[in-house]
Amino acid sequence: MTRDEFKDALDRYGGDLAKWPETLAAAARQHVAGDRGAADDLNQARRLDDLLSAAVGPQHADSALIGRIMSGIGNGHGRDRSIRPTGRLAAWASAATIVSLALGFMVGIAVPQDIGNDAFAGIMFGAAYEEDSESVL
Fold it and tell me: Which of 13, 82, 100, 111 is buried most, with the most CB atoms less than 10 Å from its CB?
Protein backbone atom coordinates (compact mmCIF):
# COMPACT_ATOMS: atom_id res chain seq x y z
CA MET A 1 0.00 0.00 0.00
CA THR A 2 1.36 3.40 -0.94
CA ARG A 3 1.02 6.49 1.21
CA ASP A 4 -1.52 8.04 -1.19
CA GLU A 5 -3.64 4.88 -1.13
CA PHE A 6 -3.47 4.90 2.66
CA LYS A 7 -4.59 8.55 2.87
CA ASP A 8 -7.40 7.87 0.40
CA ALA A 9 -8.58 4.93 2.51
CA LEU A 10 -8.36 7.08 5.68
CA ASP A 11 -10.58 9.68 4.06
CA ARG A 12 -13.00 7.03 2.89
CA TYR A 13 -13.24 4.73 5.94
CA GLY A 14 -12.05 6.84 8.88
CA GLY A 15 -9.48 6.25 11.61
CA ASP A 16 -10.90 3.02 13.03
CA LEU A 17 -9.22 0.16 11.18
CA ALA A 18 -11.86 -2.27 12.48
CA LYS A 19 -14.42 -0.58 10.20
CA TRP A 20 -12.27 -0.97 7.10
CA PRO A 21 -12.57 -3.86 4.64
CA GLU A 22 -10.38 -6.68 5.95
CA THR A 23 -7.88 -6.72 3.08
CA LEU A 24 -7.34 -2.95 3.27
CA ALA A 25 -7.08 -3.04 7.05
CA ALA A 26 -4.35 -5.68 6.93
CA ALA A 27 -2.39 -3.69 4.35
CA ALA A 28 -2.89 -0.51 6.39
CA ARG A 29 -1.56 -2.16 9.57
CA GLN A 30 1.60 -3.21 7.72
CA HIS A 31 1.95 0.26 6.24
CA VAL A 32 1.54 1.96 9.64
CA ALA A 33 4.12 -0.39 11.19
CA GLY A 34 6.71 0.65 8.62
CA ASP A 35 5.93 4.36 8.20
CA ARG A 36 5.94 6.87 11.07
CA GLY A 37 4.11 9.48 8.96
CA ALA A 38 1.31 7.02 8.29
CA ALA A 39 0.98 6.39 12.02
CA ASP A 40 0.64 10.14 12.59
CA ASP A 41 -1.99 10.34 9.85
CA LEU A 42 -3.90 7.48 11.49
CA ASN A 43 -3.81 9.23 14.89
CA GLN A 44 -5.07 12.46 13.34
CA ALA A 45 -7.91 10.58 11.66
CA ARG A 46 -8.85 8.98 14.99
CA ARG A 47 -8.90 12.39 16.72
CA LEU A 48 -11.07 13.78 13.92
CA ASP A 49 -13.47 10.85 14.26
CA ASP A 50 -13.69 11.47 18.02
CA LEU A 51 -14.38 15.18 17.52
CA LEU A 52 -17.07 14.51 14.93
CA SER A 53 -18.80 11.89 17.06
CA ALA A 54 -18.80 14.26 20.06
CA ALA A 55 -20.21 17.10 17.94
CA VAL A 56 -23.16 15.16 16.60
CA GLY A 57 -23.98 13.30 19.80
CA PRO A 58 -27.27 13.78 21.60
CA GLN A 59 -27.62 16.99 23.57
CA HIS A 60 -29.04 17.18 27.08
CA ALA A 61 -32.54 18.66 27.24
CA ASP A 62 -34.01 18.89 30.73
CA SER A 63 -37.62 19.64 31.62
CA ALA A 64 -36.86 23.34 32.26
CA LEU A 65 -35.64 23.80 28.68
CA ILE A 66 -38.68 22.01 27.28
CA GLY A 67 -40.94 24.17 29.48
CA ARG A 68 -39.33 27.38 28.18
CA ILE A 69 -39.79 26.22 24.61
CA MET A 70 -43.43 25.32 25.18
CA SER A 71 -44.22 28.60 26.96
CA GLY A 72 -42.64 30.55 24.09
CA ILE A 73 -44.95 28.84 21.62
CA GLY A 74 -48.08 29.92 23.46
CA ASN A 75 -47.27 33.57 24.18
CA GLY A 76 -46.51 34.74 20.66
CA HIS A 77 -42.70 34.70 20.70
CA GLY A 78 -41.13 33.59 17.48
CA ARG A 79 -43.98 34.61 15.19
CA ASP A 80 -43.13 35.19 11.60
CA ARG A 81 -42.63 38.87 10.92
CA SER A 82 -42.51 39.83 7.30
CA ILE A 83 -41.97 43.22 5.75
CA ARG A 84 -45.29 44.73 4.87
CA PRO A 85 -45.52 47.49 2.30
CA THR A 86 -46.37 50.80 3.91
CA GLY A 87 -47.41 54.11 2.47
CA ARG A 88 -43.93 55.53 3.02
CA LEU A 89 -42.28 52.58 1.25
CA ALA A 90 -44.63 52.93 -1.73
CA ALA A 91 -43.94 56.68 -1.90
CA TRP A 92 -40.17 56.17 -1.96
CA ALA A 93 -40.45 53.43 -4.59
CA SER A 94 -42.64 55.64 -6.77
CA ALA A 95 -40.26 58.58 -6.42
CA ALA A 96 -37.27 56.42 -7.34
CA THR A 97 -39.10 55.14 -10.43
CA ILE A 98 -39.99 58.65 -11.59
CA VAL A 99 -36.43 59.89 -11.09
CA SER A 100 -34.94 56.97 -13.03
CA LEU A 101 -37.39 57.48 -15.90
CA ALA A 102 -36.65 61.19 -16.07
CA LEU A 103 -32.92 60.55 -15.95
CA GLY A 104 -33.19 58.01 -18.76
CA PHE A 105 -35.17 60.46 -20.88
CA MET A 106 -32.57 63.19 -20.36
CA VAL A 107 -29.71 60.85 -21.26
CA GLY A 108 -31.59 59.78 -24.37
CA ILE A 109 -31.95 63.39 -25.47
CA ALA A 110 -28.28 64.13 -24.76
CA VAL A 111 -27.01 61.36 -27.10
CA PRO A 112 -25.62 62.93 -30.28
CA GLN A 113 -27.76 62.39 -33.36
CA ASP A 114 -24.91 62.46 -35.91
CA ILE A 115 -22.71 59.48 -35.21
CA GLY A 116 -20.68 59.63 -38.40
CA ASN A 117 -18.07 56.91 -38.72
CA ASP A 118 -17.76 56.28 -34.99
CA ALA A 119 -17.51 52.48 -34.54
CA PHE A 120 -18.51 52.57 -30.87
CA ALA A 121 -21.65 54.52 -31.67
CA GLY A 122 -22.34 52.03 -34.44
CA ILE A 123 -22.28 49.22 -31.92
CA MET A 124 -24.49 51.10 -29.49
CA PHE A 125 -26.95 52.44 -32.08
CA GLY A 126 -26.66 49.90 -34.88
CA ALA A 127 -29.58 50.95 -37.09
CA ALA A 128 -28.55 54.61 -37.27
CA TYR A 129 -24.94 53.65 -38.01
CA GLU A 130 -25.94 51.29 -40.81
CA GLU A 131 -27.96 54.04 -42.50
CA ASP A 132 -25.00 56.45 -42.35
CA SER A 133 -22.53 53.87 -43.63
CA GLU A 134 -24.70 53.13 -46.68
CA SER A 135 -24.81 56.79 -47.61
CA VAL A 136 -21.01 57.08 -47.32
CA LEU A 137 -20.42 54.14 -49.68
Answer: 13
